[in-house]
Design brief:
Strand order of the largest sheet: 2-1-3
Order of helices and strands: HHHHHHHEEE
Shape: globular
Helix content: 40-55%
Radius of gyration: 17 Å
Number of helices: 7
Strand content: 5-15%
Oligomer: single chain
């Protein structure tokens, strides 16, 4: 799995080149990734969510692959340990414990998208509206 420091360095290297790589979509992408870059820099994210946003754009996906690890595929470095975590099964006879997650929702009124945060992962983007999800009211 790639280190957050390496991901941060590569993304910061690519940020000034977004207009050349993406044209008119550069501003939109910059608004999407700015909070994710800040969270990664503060140590509140592992960078997987940031890579997930960037790999949607083929030009950026190619740049990321060349800079991060040309030997690995885009899917491998963007999913990394999360695939291994999902394949873990406890020992037979050992009770499984459930880790509570915090509920996040899309801030756009009438949107039904929701997501549950577990651990230090950054809130993801709403698939319909492309905005960062916010914590749901606890009430």
């Amino acid at each position: 799995m790639l280190s957050p420091e390496k991901i941060l360095a590569v993304v910061r290297e690519l940020e000034p080149r977004l207009p050349a790589l993406l044209g008119e979509k550069a501003t939109e992408v910059q608004h999407q990734i700015s909070p994710l870059v800040d969270q990664l820099a503060a140590g509140r994210s592992d960078g997987a969510d940031l890579l997930e946003v960037l790999r949607v754009y083929p030009t950026l996906a190619e740049e990321l692959q060349q800079r991060l690890d040309p030997e690995q595929s885009i899917i491998e470095f963007s999913l990394g340990d999360s695939l291994r975590d999902r394949s873990y099964q406890g020992l037979p006879g050992t009770p499984n414990t459930v880790i509570a997650g915090k509920k996040y929702i899309c801030p756009v009124p009438e949107c039904t998208q929701e997501w549950f945060r577990v651990g230090l992962r950054s809130p993801r983007l709403c698939e319909e509206h492309g905005v960062v999800m916010v914590p749901a009211d606890e009430g």
